[in-house]
Sequence to fold (206 residues):
Amino acid sequence: MQRRAAYARTQAVAYALRHWDNPNPRFANMDILGGGGDCTNFTSQALLAGGWPMDYRGSGYDREWWYLRRGREPFDGAGDDWWSCTWSLPENQFQYLRHNHATPLDLRRDPTQARRLRLGDLIFYDWDGDGLFDHGSIVTGHDRYGRPLVTYRTLSPRPPVRNAHWELPFRAPARRIYGLLLVDDPAVHRSAPDWTRLVPCDTRRA
Fold:
């Protein structure tokens, strides 16, 4: 029988509200690495804080989700931490969760579906319409009408945001917006990490 973990949504949300503008020094701050922002690193940390299990089955968007802290310097000061692309890039994270642990909702096609999203679920955005998600956020509240409010770290050139309307109306409308209904009991894959096979997302760190 497949072992299952328990997703503690309130703990994931508490983490997000604690670190949205106060990055955790135990992880790289990708907002300063030149990679386009810290949004997915941040939502991955929130999932981890909520009990989401790391996945080391193999390289690929549907088989891995992990972060390896290799040194003790805050914010990966030595530049030697490793992480999967599903940990740090919104499109890859979306695909990993969609294939393993979540149900996608097309919120541009039917915005009323947004009310189905619960605390700790995720929302992804594609502004330029190239078919790839540019940004991700985590649901950390609801307004009086039951519409989700989201929190995220960094969306250049804007600063981090706490409990914003899910459509992020201060930006030009996104071409695509998808929510992910996450399961409450993600599968735990027993594969031990094989660092001869797992490739860090930033291969310059190999």
Notes: The first strand starts at residue 55 and ends at 56.
